[in-house]
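# nightly structure sweep
# worker-07 picked up a monomer target from the shared queue
# config: single-sequence mode, recycle default, output format = structure tokens
# input follows
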Amino acid sequence: MPYQLSPSLRHTRIDHEGVVLLQEAGEVLVLNDLAMRIVELLDEPIELERLLDRLQAEYATDRATLEQDLVPFIEELTATGVVEPP
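# output follows
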């Protein structure tokens, strides 16, 4: 099952950072470049493995490290309402 952004979420990129607006919660998050890229990739529903593939192709890191960092981040985004769980 794919992950995807919450439909009430709005986001934009400003230089090498991103701003995410959680409309229902009235919260604003400021994300670094990589975190914002993950949010951008989640604009369309995407499986975790495909997300890992895309990020590995774009960033110079090994897959094990990427997965070790990505999974907790996706869990955090899900807990805050940014991402809808599969």
